[in-house]
Amino acid sequence: ERSSGKGDIKLTSGEKLEVRSAEADIAGGVVKINGETDLKTRNSKYELRANNLDLSAISSNMNNSPQARKELASRIDVPAKSRLQLSGYADMVTKLERRGNVTTQDTNLVLRRANLKISDGSLNITQMSGKLSITDRAFRFENITGLMDGGQFALSGHVPFHGAGISLMASGKKIDVDK
Predict the structure, then answer these.
(1) What span, in angstroms and rounded, lies between the C-alpha atoms of 41 and 10?
(2) Exposed e or buried b for every residue in 170-179, given b needs 16+ CB within 10 A?
(3) What is the pLDDT of residues 122-169, one digit of tens each?
(4) What is the mean pLDDT of residues 42-60?
(5) DSSP letter string over 14-34?
């Protein structure tokens, strides 16, 4: 899918690229972008914001991209030949920073009536609300609530991508754990 953009962007030849305020249409909604890149040091700092992102459009693009599926598989165990399916809406704030050859990101999603399913039926979460944060190191869950296989659940805590240190508080009512 193609993207388009517009905004106030200033290039100082050989020195700096400034994105003062720009908007880009992406699958799922409009993202507002601001930040800058120092062209001499290649250091960058950007912030991306979006409201009412359509998670089903993002899910479709993700599932159609081999690179995105590979990145997702490094973080989440999705059974072979299955796809992660998202729907619902989210507000997003992402901060991207690059220093030398190291890029860091911190994404915060505020979920509204979001649904997360795996196409083989092994996971079916609906009506999710709360805040999900994704950094280079971990997932963070803040007051995530919803329904899992018909039962209510609540989740808070963090899960690192590598190493130890999982800290989760989960509660549930009438959840079918036999699936």
Answers:
(1) 17
(2) eeeeebeeee
(3) 888 899 999 999 998 888 999 999 998 778 999 999 988 877 778 888
(4) 92
(5) TTEEEEEEEEEEETTEEEEEE
Is residue 92 a contact partner of residue 112, using CB atoms and an 8 Å limit? Answer: no
Quick one: which of 177, 87, 79 has its CA closest to 128?
Answer: 87
Q: What angle do CA 17, 20, 21 make, to 5 degrees?
A: 130
Q: In the chain, what is the greatest distance between 2 CA atoms, to the nearest angstrom?
A: 62
Question: What value, to the nearest 5°, has the Cα angle with vertex 174 and ends 173 and 175?
Answer: 95
pLDDT tens-digit map of 62-76: 878 888 777 776 666
List phi, psi (to 5°) of 28.
105, -20
CA distances from 90 to 54, 117, 173 (A): 7, 16, 25
